[in-house]
Amino acid sequence: MIPAQSGAATAPPSTGEARAHGTDTEPDPRRWLALAVIAVAQLMVVLDGSIVTLALPHAQAALDISTADRQWVMTAYTLAFGGLLLLGGRIADFAGRKRAFIWGLVGFAGASALGGFTPNAEGLFAARALQGACAAVLAPAALSLITVTFTDGKERARAFGVYGGISGGGAAIGLIVGGLLTEYASWRWCLFVNVPIALVTAVAAISVVRESRAEGKPSYDIPGAATITLGLVALVYGFTRAADDGWGAPVTVSLLVAAVVLVVAFVVIELRTKAPLLPMRVVLDRNRGGAFLSSLFFGAALLAMFLFMTFYFQQTLHYSALRSGFAFLPFSAGIVVGAGMASQLLPRFGPKLLMVVGSALAVVGLLLLTQVGLDTGYASHVLPAEILISFGMGLAFVPMSSVSLIGVAEHDAGVASALANTTQQVGGSLGIALLNTVYATVVTNYLGDHGFGPAAEAQSQIEGYTVSFAWSAGLMAVALVVVLILVRAKKSDVAATGAPVHVG
């Protein structure tokens, strides 16, 4: 449901590079078939997010996953995807974008099958992490393939439009498909459905997608990828253990300290290595840094919100999985409408105003969700909040994508584009882990004060949801403050960035 900006990790290949590897400047006669194959792969990745979210309550019950651990179904994926995305782009560029695309699809199919067959929670978490790792190779390869396949500017714009439309509409389709599969088949089919789609797409790509790769000696910043990924895992696991052991417990403190040490080590590695995974010059610019930091807090606020809304629909309002999918549909529509309006308004008003207004609308919508209760209605309390949050998201993400590319050097353009998605995914991982711990703590404290029983347990969940929504609003408010303080870009600054924007 959160916008997916699957940017490549390097800049598009030059004409000389394309010729050097057999992809001359003549248009590929099968380019539109290739786009169809790439679009199907993107649709599968987008569908997976919304399908799994809807299936989570059923998977938790079936595999006896604790409240503290349930967030790993989502964060295992987003951590692997966000933590490895920049490395995945490098792998795609040097190993071959077509090859990376096909093997990413095959790996995604295998991981989905493992998750569908798993008999326990640990197997599901591992399968989701493997899905994320494969998506980290697949996503940048797909976007790079569009860039090298469509050499004409107008055709490339149309191709990116198709790709973005798939990203925007795919989440809505996933809500309905996920509801149908969960309600009438099993939550496991929300994973199994990826297998035939991925394998058929991989076979089709063999004949219709043209290979391309970057020039030069392959360079992979493995130490950088390892330290940042392990640091993020330690941070998320620290949040998770805090739900069971408390924030002052030795294991919690040790994990959080290890996370800080690993993240600092990552920065040191990136400053010293000759071919860094993330050149610090990309993030230290005021405008770009503001865009990436606000994107991080957007992801933290919004992915956590989806988690709690799913459980609110199915456990408090007793919606079926299918009805929950329909209840989320206005959210998808609001994102598309907001993004469409932002695209029209950006050249006229510039990025900062749209980012401020969009963030503010999302804060108000999240605050409205703090008013939900056991007997509140969907139309009176949830729908207005959904409209405000989703429209604000669409309004903010379009200029955010453009600001992330302001003033970036050509050889850093792919890194900057991919980083917008990386920050969303990483922020989502951290937000889900932190706020799920907040939720579990609130529920435990409420039951400790009011005793156990059906009424107390139901109200404890409401208390957990509303406090978590308040924290989400706080995180979104931080994103708003970041935009106000750091972003100084004007409309003339974003006129030539040409950043493809994908919402979903």
TrEMBL record:
<feature type="transmembrane region" description="Helical">
    <location>
        <begin position="160"/>
        <end position="180"/>
    </location>
</feature>
<feature type="transmembrane region" description="Helical">
    <location>
        <begin position="430"/>
        <end position="448"/>
    </location>
</feature>
<protein>
    <submittedName>
        <fullName>MFS transporter</fullName>
    </submittedName>
</protein>
<feature type="transmembrane region" description="Helical">
    <location>
        <begin position="387"/>
        <end position="409"/>
    </location>
</feature>
<dbReference type="InterPro" id="IPR011701">
    <property type="entry name" value="MFS"/>
</dbReference>
<feature type="transmembrane region" description="Helical">
    <location>
        <begin position="468"/>
        <end position="487"/>
    </location>
</feature>
<dbReference type="InterPro" id="IPR005829">
    <property type="entry name" value="Sugar_transporter_CS"/>
</dbReference>
<dbReference type="InterPro" id="IPR036259">
    <property type="entry name" value="MFS_trans_sf"/>
</dbReference>
<keyword id="KW-1003">Cell membrane</keyword>
<feature type="transmembrane region" description="Helical">
    <location>
        <begin position="353"/>
        <end position="372"/>
    </location>
</feature>
<dbReference type="GO" id="GO:0022857">
    <property type="term" value="F:transmembrane transporter activity"/>
</dbReference>
<keyword id="KW-0472">Membrane</keyword>
<keyword id="KW-1133">Transmembrane helix</keyword>
<feature type="transmembrane region" description="Helical">
    <location>
        <begin position="186"/>
        <end position="208"/>
    </location>
</feature>
<feature type="region of interest" description="Disordered">
    <location>
        <begin position="1"/>
        <end position="27"/>
    </location>
</feature>
<feature type="transmembrane region" description="Helical">
    <location>
        <begin position="71"/>
        <end position="88"/>
    </location>
</feature>
<feature type="domain" description="Major facilitator superfamily (MFS) profile">
    <location>
        <begin position="34"/>
        <end position="491"/>
    </location>
</feature>
<keyword id="KW-0812">Transmembrane</keyword>
<keyword id="KW-0813">Transport</keyword>
<feature type="compositionally biased region" description="Basic and acidic residues">
    <location>
        <begin position="18"/>
        <end position="27"/>
    </location>
</feature>
<dbReference type="InterPro" id="IPR020846">
    <property type="entry name" value="MFS_dom"/>
</dbReference>
<feature type="transmembrane region" description="Helical">
    <location>
        <begin position="246"/>
        <end position="269"/>
    </location>
</feature>
<feature type="transmembrane region" description="Helical">
    <location>
        <begin position="220"/>
        <end position="240"/>
    </location>
</feature>
<feature type="transmembrane region" description="Helical">
    <location>
        <begin position="290"/>
        <end position="313"/>
    </location>
</feature>
<feature type="transmembrane region" description="Helical">
    <location>
        <begin position="100"/>
        <end position="117"/>
    </location>
</feature>
<feature type="transmembrane region" description="Helical">
    <location>
        <begin position="32"/>
        <end position="59"/>
    </location>
</feature>
<dbReference type="Pfam" id="PF07690">
    <property type="entry name" value="MFS_1"/>
</dbReference>
<feature type="transmembrane region" description="Helical">
    <location>
        <begin position="129"/>
        <end position="148"/>
    </location>
</feature>
<dbReference type="GO" id="GO:0005886">
    <property type="term" value="C:plasma membrane"/>
</dbReference>
<feature type="transmembrane region" description="Helical">
    <location>
        <begin position="325"/>
        <end position="346"/>
    </location>
</feature>
